[in-house]
Specification:
Layout: E1 3-8, H1 16-31, E2 35-40, H2 46-57, H3 64-88, E3 93-96, H4 118-124, H5 126-133, E4 137-141, E5 144-146, E6 152-154, H6 159-170, E7 175-180, E8 201-203, H7 204-212, E9 231-236, E10 247-250, E11 260-263, E12 268-275, H8 284-294, E13 301-304, E14 308-314, H9 315-330, E15 335-350, H10 354-357, H11 361-371, E16 376-381, E17 385-391, H12 395-406
Parallel strand pairs: 1-2, 1-7, 2-4, 3-4, 7-9, 8-10
Antiparallel strand pairs: 5-6, 9-10, 11-15, 12-14, 12-15, 13-14, 15-17, 16-17
Helix pairs in contact: 1-3, 2-3, 8-9, 11-12
Length: 407
C-alpha cells in the first residue's frame, strides 16, 4: 500500500466535468489499494473573483483578517464539491477545512502571510492518518491555515503546493503528485514554441530557478517543503491518471541554498572595453566573449552599457585576456580603448526569495557596505542571486557584513 498526496490546482477543478475526472483518478488509486490525501485549490478564477468583489464592496477598509476569511471561501467550496463527488463514485470521503477537528495546518496569527508551526502541524496531521486508516479519502483545503486562536489564515503564494508538500512530509507519503494544466515541466512554454518537449526529470534547484523566472507550473516557495525521501512529480489533469509519469522532481531542497553568501576564492580582474554606441553594434558582445572562450578564459561577470562593456576574469588570466581584447579594439572601428583593473573580489549571494518575496533586498545588502566605506565595483542580480564585486582587500569584511544581513 502506498500513500499518495495529490494536489489539484484551480484549472484542474475548473468545472464539473474536470472535478469528476479528478475525483475518478483519486478513486482509481484507492481501488488499487492505495491511500490518497487530496489537496484542492479554489476552483479556477474563484479567488480572483472574490478579491474583485471584496475590493468593489469594501475597498481599502477591509482588514487582513476579513480578507483571509473571504479568500478561504474558494478552497472551502472546492473541497466540499470534490469530497461529494468522490462519495458519488462509491468511496467514503470527507472535506477537511480550518473548522474541522482534523485540520492539519497550524500557523501563526498573520492573516495573509502566515508561517506554518511545524511541530503543531506534524502532531495535528495524525488525525489525517486516522481518517486514512478508516478507509476515508480526506479532501483538504490548500492555501489555508488555522491560527493560535482558531482564526483562519492563509499561507501566501504557492499555498496549495506548500500544503501538499508539507502533508507529504508529515504523513511520510510515498509520493506527492501536483496535478495541473500541463503534461509536466517543458523545455520552454509550448504556447510560444510548438517544439517544446516534456522533461522526464528535473532537479529541485532547476525547478526553483525556472519557477522564479516565470514558469507557473509550481511556486518556488513550495519547494522548500519538499521532503528528500518522498517522490514528487507534476502531471496533467487531462490524463485523469495519478500514475502518469509526468515530470519527476528529484533531489532535496538544500537548506544552504535558501540564503547563502560565498566569496569566490580567487582574485579577479576587471577589463573595460570602451567605444561609441556599442550597445547598438550587433554581434559585438559575441565577438568579445568568443575571443575569450576560444582561448579557454572563463568570464565570471559581464555588463554592457551604451559606451562600454566590462568583463571579469581571474587575475591569472587577466594579462592574456587584456592583450586578446586589445586586438579586438584596434581592429574594430567603433571601439576606442580598454583598461584593466586588478585585485577584485566576487561575492555571490543566493536566495530563491529575493525578487519573489523580499522587495528592497539589494538595498538591505549594500547598506552596511556603504556604512563601512566599502566601494562596490559592480553589482548584478537575477531572480535568485546577487553578485557583488568589491576590491579584494575588502572581500572578507564585505562577506561578513552581508552574512549578518542574511541572518
Amino acid at each position: 500500500m502506498e500513500l499518495i498526496v495529490a494536489k489539484f490546482g484551480g484549472t484542474s477543478v475548473g468545472n464539473g466535468a474536470r472535478i469528476k475526472k479528478a475525483a475518478q483518478s483519486v478513486v482509481n488509486e484507492f481501488m488499487k489499494g492505495n491511500q490518497v490525501v487530496v489537496v484542492v485549490s479554489a476552483i479556477n478564477k474563484t479567488t480572483d473573483d472574490l478579491i474583485e468583489v471584496a475590493d468593489g464592496a469594501i475597498g481599502d477598509k477591509i482588514s487582513p483578517q476579513q480578507m483571509a476569511q473571504i479568500l478561504s471561501m474558494g478552497e472551502m467550496t472546492s473541497t466540499r464539491v470534490f469530497a461529494s463527488t468522490i462519495e458519488s463514485l462509491g468511496v467514503k470521503s470527507t472535506f477537511v477545512d480550518p473548522y474541522s477537528d482534523e485540520w492539519p495546518i497550524i500557523t501563526d496569527n498573520s492573516p495573509l502571510e502566515a508561517k506554518i508551526n511545524f511541530k503543531a502541524s506534524e502532531f495535528q496531521s495524525k488525525k489525517i492518518r486516522e481518517l486514512l486508516d478508516q478507509g476515508v479519502i480526506p479532501v483538504v483545503c490548500g492555501f489555508l491555515g488555522r491560527g493560535p486562536n482558531n482564526e483562519i489564515t492563509t499561507i501566501g503564494r504557492g499555498g496549495s503546493d506548500v500544503t501538499a508538500f508539507f502533508l507529504g512530509h508529515a504523513l511520510k507519503a510515498s509520493e506527492v503528485v501536483i496535478v495541473t494544466d500541463v503534461d509536466g515541466v517543458m523545455s520552454t512554454d509550448p504556447r510560444k514554441i510548438a517544439e517544446a518537449e516534456k522533461l522526464d526529470k528535473i532537479s529541485v534547484e532547476e525547478m526553483r530557478d525556472i519557477a522564479v523566472h516565470g514558469a507557473q507550473v509550481l511556486h518556488p516557495n513550495a519547494l522548500k517543503f519538499k521532503d528528500p525521501m518522498i517522490k514528487a512529480k507534476i502531471i496533467s489533469f487531462e490524463k485523469g491518471d495519478l500514475s502518469d509519469k509526468g515530470t519527476e522532481i528529484i533531489g532535496p531542497f538544500e537548506d544552504n541554498l535558501l540564503k547563502s553568501a560565498v566569496l569566490y576564492p580567487e582574485e579577479l580582474s576587471i577589463i573595460a572595453v570602451v567605444g561609441e554606441h556599442m550597445i547598438e553594434s550587433k554581434g559585438l558582445l559575441a565577438q568579445l566573449t568568443n575571443i575569450l572562450a576560444e582561448n579557454d578564459i572563463n568570464i565570471y561577470g559581464i555588463s554592457a552599457g551604451e559606451n562600454s562593456i566590462t568583463v571579469f576574469v581571474t587575475k591569472k588570466d587577466s594579462d592574456r585576456a587584456y592583450h586578446l581584447l586589445h586586438r579586438l579594439v584596434v581592429n574594430t572601428d567603433i571601439l576606442s580603448s580598454l583598461s584593466i583593473g586588478k585585485d577584485i573580489a566576487m561575492i555571490t549571494v543566493v536566495s530563491p526569495e529575493f525578487t519573489v518575496e523580499t522587495p528592497g533586498v539589494i538595498s538591505d545588502i549594500i547598506r552596511p557596505l556603504r556604512k563601512n566605506n566599502i566601494n562596490i565595483v559592480e553589482i548584478s542580480s537575477s531572480q535568485t542571486a546577487i553578485i557583488i564585486f568589491v576590491e579584494w582587500k575588502n572581500g572578507k569584511k564585505a562577506l561578513e557584513l552581508i552574512k549578518e544581513v542574511l541572518n
